[in-house]
Amino acid sequence: MGLLEIKEVLRQWLAGRAKKAISRRLGIDVKTVRKYVLAAEACGLTVGAERAPSARVLSAVADGVLSQGRGRPRGAGWELCSRHREGIRTLLERGLRPTEIRSALGRCGVRVSASTLYRFVVAELAHTRSASIDGRTPEEGEPVKALAPASRGRSALWGPGKEW
Questions:
Q1: Which of 8, 14, 37, 135 is exposed most, by the fewest CB atoms within 10 A?
Q2: How many angstroms separate the first and last alpha carbons of the chain?
Q3: Residues 6+ apart with CB under 8 A from 131
Q4: 3-67: which CATH topology?
């Protein structure tokens, strides 16, 4: 996003063009156009009031757009992951994949979607797929990661009263 892009969107919007028309004309997603217009309206700009946005308004709109953040709002699943951050980090360090961690969490009564856990692991713990698989075979006597069967009701690595 550049100030030039915001300025052009607002200039056309102030001239009375529809958001969809601005989107087509500039090759910008209509949701982006809508975001710029909403930020301009929050700054007090209205259609027909001016022909071109001032530098002050442009700066305020850019600040407003940047302060909105990106992505979807975080919900209860993210909060559960946050509460178990250190345990998740420990299991990642032990080489478990997010799907295995999700199973372990589930056996302890912590229900979180696979996509939420994966996004949490990537965003908050800077974990990547390559970090979970080192591609080597364990040395003689080296412990092998193992989860308890689901029928036991809890994980061998994760459970009530267990240390990380």
A1: 135
A2: 43
A3: 92
A4: Arc Repressor Mutant, subunit A (1.10.10)
